[in-house]
């Protein structure tokens, strides 16, 4: 039975590595896959998914507001696909997540999404919020903080090396921009955020 999966984590946890390995496993068994990534994230090159450990694959791209049900239906008309892999899924909008639900339910093709859960301010990305609400299965891809605890948060570093507290939700970057931390060290980096008193 086809399902919608959301594999989430912080930066530098190996999400793209896991995606590429899973796609390879299908292809090794003679089953085709369809890879998609965010159009504006071209750190690895246009239409390319790459991992920090050096593996990569060509992919199609999706743009904000693009109809993914139509895009995937057009791809399926060219031949069968065993699984669809979506990298940078945090950049989906809510309607696009509903389109992926239709792909799973109506076209009977599994969709595996990989992306960040929260931004550098500890807020859910719109795509991630929709996936948390609608996915059939969710899996955390784990990484660790410098203290050895599980990292669940990410900070965006400014030019001065200090954690930023404000800015646009989306800013493409890698190790030079983002650091994954446990919640305690994230709070320390951005300044303790105490709960408001009742």
TrEMBL record:
- What GO CC annotations are associated with the protein? cytosol
Q: Which PANTHER family match?
A: THYMIDINE KINASE, THYMIDINE KINASE, CYTOSOLIC
Localisation: Cytoplasm
Q: How does it assemble?
A: Homotetramer.
A Pfam family this protein belongs to? TK
Family membership noted in the UniProt record? Belongs to the thymidine kinase family.
User: InterPro entries in the record, alphabetically?
Assistant: P-loop_NTPase, Thymidine_kinase, Thymidine_kinase_CS
| Primary location | cytoplasm
Instruction: State where Zn(2+) binds.
Output: 145, 147, 182, 185
Provenance organism: Thalassovita litoralis
Q: What is the lineage of its organism?
A: Bacteria, Pseudomonadati, Pseudomonadota, Alphaproteobacteria, Rhodobacterales
Question: According to its UniProt record, which reaction does this protein catalyse?
Answer: thymidine + ATP = dTMP + ADP + H(+)
- Molecular function GO terms recorded: ATP binding; thymidine kinase activity; zinc ion binding
- The entry's ATP-binding residues are 9-16, 87-90
Designated gene of the protein: tdk
Q: Does the keyword Metal-binding apply?
A: yes
GO BP annotations listed: DNA biosynthetic process; thymidine metabolic process
Which positions are catalytic residues?
A: 88
Q: What is this protein called?
A: Thymidine kinase
């Amino acid at each position: 039975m086809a399902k919608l999966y959301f594999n989430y984590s912080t930066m530098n946890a190996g999400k793209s590595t896991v995606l590429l390995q899973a796609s390879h496993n299908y292809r090794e068994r003679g089953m085709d896959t369809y890879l998609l990534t965010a159009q504006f994230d071209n750190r690895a090159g246009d239409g390319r998914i790459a991992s920090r450990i050096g593996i990569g694959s060509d992919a199609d791209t999706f743009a904000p507001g693009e109809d993914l049900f139509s895009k995937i239906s057009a791809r399926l008309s060219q031949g069968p696909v065993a699984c669809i892999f979506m990298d940078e899924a945090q950049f989906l909008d809510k309607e696009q997540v509903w389109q992926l639900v239709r792909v799973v339910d109506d076209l009977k093709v599994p969709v595996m999404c990989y992306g960040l859960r929260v931004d550098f301010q500890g807020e859910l990305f719109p795509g991630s919020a929709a996936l948390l609400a609608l996915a059939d299965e969710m899996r955390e891809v784990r990484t660790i903080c410098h203290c050895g605890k599980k990292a669940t948060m990410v900070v965006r570093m400014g030019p001065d090396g200090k954690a930023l507290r404000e800015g646009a939700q989306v800013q493409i970057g890698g190790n030079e921009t983002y650091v994954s931390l446990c919640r305690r060290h994230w709070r320390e980096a951005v300044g303790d955020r105490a709960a408001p008193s009742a």
